[in-house]
Amino acid sequence: MPINDVESAVDALLQAENRREERGRVTTEWPGLDAGTAYEVQRTLIEAKIAAGEEIVGFKLGLTSKAKQEQMNVDAPLSGWLTDAHQCCNGEPVKVANYIHPRIEPEIAFILGRELKGPNCTRDDVKEATSHITAAFEIIDSRYRDFNFALPDVIADNASSAGFILGKTHIKVGEFDLINEPVELLVDGEVQATATGAAVLGDPAQAVVDAVNEIATRGQSLPAGTIVLTGALTDAVFLNPGSKYTARFKSLGEITVNCL
Ligand code: OOG
Ligand code: MG
């Protein structure tokens, strides 16, 4: 089926996800796809998941760090939605075969106690609406061959969302130094990458402000209870069966994922 409109793009992306098959860029077949229309594809894709029984539980920012923008060759941040089906593994191992070519990345998550709504959202609003901050690991799994995409492709693909795991340490905003919070990403006990909170657009809280104001242009807001992933602090690494991945933060604690 040729891809030339929102419905056909959604069908192609859902088929790739459900069959665990990578595919070519949507923009190769539909060069006119711009970022605005790509967000319509994303919204329609999420509506299809909701119709199939999934529930939205979170919101994610992507490509908010220089490390990720350079790794993916895209120079603007984007956002997507997380459903209950993405929340994984209460300590159980992650099965690599459940995905196409999964990668993992350490992130900082804000958990909202109150709604956040643009267009005039400020840093103080984010501070007041956040009930706590926690460590997170995100599993991303682009539906595109070799994670090769342009910005509209990855927006349409719900920002490569595939899974996430939250840490158990909860800290209130202001009770630690968010911007200088260090993290190490370890694979099988070896440090692969390090960063601090500043990797996320200089300040993860400001990244949330910008994203809330951006989604307001499409009439969207974040309800109380939303889990907000603020974007990878380091490059993402591929998940391999038999390997162990740890995100080790100074104040936010540690998350470990074992892969099968
Ligand atoms: C896009 C998703 C990026 C992040 O945290 O930067 C992302 C991708 O790299 O496939 O989730
Ligand atoms: Mg991410």
UniProtKB/TrEMBL annotation:
Coiled-coil regions listed in the entry: none
Listed GO MF terms: 2-oxopent-4-enoate hydratase activity; 4-oxalocrotonate decarboxylase activity
Keywords of this entry: Lyase
A GO CC term attached to the entry: cytoplasm
Domain Fumarylacetoacetase-like C-terminal: 83-256
EC number(s) reported in the record: 4.1.1.77
InterPro entries noted in UniProt: Fumarylacetoacetase-like_C (IPR011234), Fumarylacetoacetase_C_sf (IPR036663), Hydratase-Decarb/MhpD_sf (IPR050772)
Transmembrane intervals: none
Listed Gene3D superfamilies: Fumarylacetoacetase-like, C-terminal domain (3.90.850.10)
Protein name as catalogued: 4-oxalocrotonate decarboxylase
Gene coding for it: amnE
